[in-house]
Write a structure and sequence with these properties.
mainly alpha, elongated, single chain, about 0% strand
């Protein structure tokens, strides 16, 4: 019976965390869809090839290689880091949240827990 309480507590925590992640993603969506509020990093024509490359390869991007798409980012590294760090952290939180949800669902499945909803 105690494992069911722990599962319920974990579900509650993940539910609250999921709400926070969704709020942040909604904010990012609103910021990026409005041309006036969109970060200049995403609208700069010089950065366009790099943004397309990152969109295609995210999250497995190799910055160490000699990639012609990323040269403009490497030149403006500090500006890019300052502008994109909050967005990047938010997307990493989404991926971490997904992993925690999968882990909990596997635990629930393995314990053959039944929910009377």
């Amino acid at each position: 019976m105690s494992y069911q309480q722990k599962l319920a507590e974990k579900l509650t925590i993940l539910n609250e965390r999921g709400s926070g992640v969704l709020i942040r993603m909604n904010y990012i969506k609103k910021m990026c869809s409005d041309p006036k509020q969109r970060p200049s990093l995403l609208t700069d024509k010089v950065m366009e090839p790099a943004v397309k490359y990152i969109n295609k390869k995210f999250p497995n991007i190799d910055f160490r290689g000699n990639n012609q798409h990323l040269t403009c980012i490497q030149r403006q590294k500090s500006e890019v880091m300052a502008t994109a760090s909050t967005y990047y952290d938010s997307f990493l939180d989404v991926m971490e949240f997904r992993d925690h949800v999968y882990e909990l669902l596997n635990t629930i499945d393995a314990s053959q827990c039944f929910f009377n909803i």
